[in-house]
Amino acid sequence: MALENTQIQNKLTETFNNDVFNFHEERDIFTLEASADKITALILFLKNDSELQFHFLTDLCGIHYPDNESERQFAVVYHLHNWFENKRIRIKVYLNGEKPEIKTISNIFLSSNWMERETYDFYGINFVGHPQLKRILNMDEMVSFPMRKEFPMEDSGRTDKDDRFFGRTVSNC
C-alpha cells in the first residue's frame, strides 16, 4: 500500500497534536510546519516509525525572512525521503529572529553535521548540541552571516549590480 499524505498527517497529529500544523502539498512534496522544541522527536519519529520510514535526510537549510515578525524571521527546512515508497516530505520550522536556535539532529542523521554547520555559517542559526558548530566555508574571523538579507550583495561602489534584484533592500546610510 502506497504511503499517502493523509496517513502521514494522521500519524503525526495523533502523536504530536498541535506541534505539527499547516499540512499541504507544495510542488509535489508533502509539507508541514512544526514547533522548534519538538523537532528532534519529530525527526526521530519519522525515521523510526515502521510505516513512515523516512530514513534519508536529503537536505537541511536555512531561510531568512527579515520582514516577518520577530518570532518567524528565520526558518530551518528539513527534506526527508522514504526510499521504499519514493515519498518525500518537507518540514519547516520558524525561529526567533533575536536568537535563532534549534536542537541539532546530527545525532539522528550524521549527514546533517555539515548541513547544520553550513546553515550556521551563512545564517547564524545556532544548532544546540551540535558536536562541532563552527564556520565551514567562511573565515573564522567573520562576524556577519552573508546569507542574511541585511548583508550587502556587492561592494557599495559597484554600479553594475543592484541588490533589489536579489530580494534585498538597499539602505541609504
UniProtKB/TrEMBL annotation:
<keyword id="KW-0472">Membrane</keyword>
<dbReference type="InterPro" id="IPR037232">
    <property type="entry name" value="NADH_quin_OxRdtase_su_C/D-like"/>
</dbReference>
<dbReference type="GO" id="GO:0005886">
    <property type="term" value="C:plasma membrane"/>
</dbReference>
<dbReference type="InterPro" id="IPR020396">
    <property type="entry name" value="NADH_UbQ_OxRdtase_CS"/>
</dbReference>
<keyword id="KW-0874">Quinone</keyword>
<keyword id="KW-1278">Translocase</keyword>
<keyword id="KW-1003">Cell membrane</keyword>
<keyword id="KW-0520">NAD</keyword>
<comment type="subunit">
    <text>NDH-1 is composed of 14 different subunits. Subunits NuoB, C, D, E, F, and G constitute the peripheral sector of the complex.</text>
</comment>
<dbReference type="InterPro" id="IPR010218">
    <property type="entry name" value="NADH_DH_suC"/>
</dbReference>
<dbReference type="GO" id="GO:0048038">
    <property type="term" value="F:quinone binding"/>
</dbReference>
<comment type="similarity">
    <text>Belongs to the complex I 30 kDa subunit family.</text>
</comment>
<keyword id="KW-0813">Transport</keyword>
<dbReference type="Pfam" id="PF00329">
    <property type="entry name" value="Complex1_30kDa"/>
</dbReference>
<keyword id="KW-0997">Cell inner membrane</keyword>
<feature type="domain" description="NADH:ubiquinone oxidoreductase 30kDa subunit">
    <location>
        <begin position="33"/>
        <end position="155"/>
    </location>
</feature>
<comment type="function">
    <text>NDH-1 shuttles electrons from NADH, via FMN and iron-sulfur (Fe-S) centers, to quinones in the respiratory chain. The immediate electron acceptor for the enzyme in this species is believed to be a menaquinone. Couples the redox reaction to proton translocation (for every two electrons transferred, four hydrogen ions are translocated across the cytoplasmic membrane), and thus conserves the redox energy in a proton gradient.</text>
</comment>
<dbReference type="GO" id="GO:0050136">
    <property type="term" value="F:NADH dehydrogenase (quinone) (non-electrogenic) activity"/>
</dbReference>
<protein>
    <recommendedName>
        <fullName>NADH-quinone oxidoreductase subunit C</fullName>
        <ecNumber>7.1.1.-</ecNumber>
    </recommendedName>
</protein>
<dbReference type="InterPro" id="IPR001268">
    <property type="entry name" value="NADH_UbQ_OxRdtase_30kDa_su"/>
</dbReference>
<dbReference type="GO" id="GO:0008137">
    <property type="term" value="F:NADH dehydrogenase (ubiquinone) activity"/>
</dbReference>
